[in-house]
Amino acid sequence: MIRESIRGTWTAKFRPLRFLTTAVVAAILLLVGSTKTWAQEPTNTTPQLDIYGFAMLDAGYQAKQADPNWFDVVRPTKLPSFTDEFGADGHFYAGVRQSRFGVKADIPTASGQHIKTIFEFELFGTGVDAGQTTFRLRHAYGEYGKFGAGQTWSPFMDIDVFPNSVEYWGPNGMVFYRNVQARFIPWQKGDSRLVIAIERPGASSDQGIYTGGEVLGGVSGRFPAPDISGHYRMAGSKGHLQIAGIYRRINWDDLTPTPGPDLTGSANGWGINLSGNIKVAKHVVRLQYVHGEGIQNYMNDAPEDIGIETDPAAPTVLIGKALPIDGVVAFIDLNWSEKFTSSVGYSREDIDNSNGQSPTSFKSGQYALANFLFYPVKGVMMGPEFQWGYRENLNGFTSSDYKFQFSAKYNFNFKVGG
User: Fold this and answer.
1) pLDDT averaged over the chain?
2) Domain count, the chain
């Protein structure tokens, strides 16, 4: 009853509240950022190498069902789109896919600038390796002075919004994307900075009611330019505020050789992401609000970027639409003591579907969790977590999932030089 009440009232009020939410969060975080106690850059004059990582177990019980390739995470897009799509409810799972290994280097040069690199991978398979325990690259990135290149966090995202949880995938309404990029950092002071980047483009389309037919069989996507992203981050002793933006061009070409309507077209994708942390005593509030169109592949859990829009008066005219999306994240990390912490919060995303999408297309998703974690000694963490996910389709069908997970994490970190 509570869940249904939240879903109904939020859906009705979400759109008009988005600008008010942005203004309120911005005002709070601007006050936070006004205390400018800047962190200092490291001053090591000899090369330093950090070797780090962790071994981690995740084990739990899934009360309902989801795509079996995503058995150990909560992704609303992977919940059933119709009754019993993935069989019967109730599954036990266990794995070590979050385990990670990484190396960071900091090398001083004669110019006074440092070469900083990171190479990091984990065992969580995605894409064609979804559901497998296999090597997956996370970061392969280097930086010298004001320039950086490689694969790392997109400037459009804010990794500090991610809560202190053991569920791998995280809040569905969060901007979360590691991408290949080249970036320029014209200004940086401590944790405050201005970043501009060009990123590898990529997007997907939902052919909707025309899936598998000949109408769109000859249409092929094309990206004529890189995605352009950037952010401004202001940090202080009480938290930080980050404002990020992105623009992208998405084209598609109709290569069908037979006569007929030319479905060639294009769309502009764009987004604004406002995020930040607020430190309250020992605790940390993590907030984010994002709005945009055609930026779904930058989101932590979202479907296609482009949908099909039809004109009832001209059924042969099909237009690609950059789908509008809104996402929110609101979590608090509670640091009870050196040995005990908790995290609790909620996330949501809503998509303005096009009229050519299928009735079972994803429309909105919700995500929540709560945990209680124990740190018996430095470098060891374990504890239980409750997780919840919820999906709503364009046709009104809904599904949900509940998980009870226990995780144990054992860290290592060695420094050489420095």
Assistant:
1) 90
2) 1
